[in-house]
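// run 5 | inverse folding | seed 20
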């Protein structure tokens, strides 16, 4: 069973629907026992880093997340969950979980991405919203049957910047190349929304589940 951490931060229900579509047993929960007994935990989220951290700290779920990692429970951070696994977010200068060293940085509105019909570079729009392609940097069980050039769906103004670049498994480009997925076997973080990314996103969620039950 996959447990989706409930900390009132957005997209838990859409993640649950995607898992249900895959016929994967899953639940949304804030119960520590259920989370500790699950085969794996998904840590999703949308919204602001500071508000999310306040909720986690109030419920002592920050301590729980660190315990899950220490116990080597498979954990998948999605979007905001991906960002606050790091040490600090530029969003309101927020201290985050610090499970992985690094920061969450804001896209720079002066960066450009593409040109118009007059060959003039076009400044990026923030947030980065919509479909983009992925470039695979390393093999990973999470990326089974995923290839460079596959399209995934983003909604974000900040991007993860892990200190150890060897943890970067895949990237996308929006003004600059940034990590789309980082982590290591059993602890992964995804900046895009797999639950909104069609067959590619569903494959990634299935890969996570397969890893959990084989572990």
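// decoded
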């Amino acid at each position: 069973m996959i447990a989706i951490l409930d900390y009132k931060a957005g997209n838990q229900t859409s993640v649950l629907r995607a898992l249900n579509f895959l016929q994967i047993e899953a639940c949304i929960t804030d119960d520590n026992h259920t989370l500790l007994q699950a085969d794996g935990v998904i840590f999703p989220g949308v919204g602001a880093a500071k508000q999310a951290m306040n909720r986690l700290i109030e419920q002592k779920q920050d301590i729980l997340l660190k315990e899950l990692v220490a116990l080597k429970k498979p954990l998948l951070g999605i979007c905001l969950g991906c960002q606050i696994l790091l040490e600090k977010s530029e969003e309101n200068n927020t201290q985050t979980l610090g499970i992985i060293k690094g920061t969450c940085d804001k896209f720079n509105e002066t960066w450009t991405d593409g040109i118009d019909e007059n060959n003039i570079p076009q400044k990026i729009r923030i947030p980065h919203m919509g479909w983009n392609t992925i470039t695979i940097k390393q093999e990973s069980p999470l990326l089974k049957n995923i290839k460079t050039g596959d399209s995934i769906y983003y909604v974000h103004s900040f991007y993860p910047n892990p200190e150890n670049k060897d943890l970067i498994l895949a990237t996308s480009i929006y003004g600059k190349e940034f990590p789309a997925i980082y982590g290591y076997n059993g602890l992964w973080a995804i900046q895009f929304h797999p639950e909104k990314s069609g067959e590619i996103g569903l494959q990634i969620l299935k890969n996570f589940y397969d890893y959990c039950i084989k572990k």
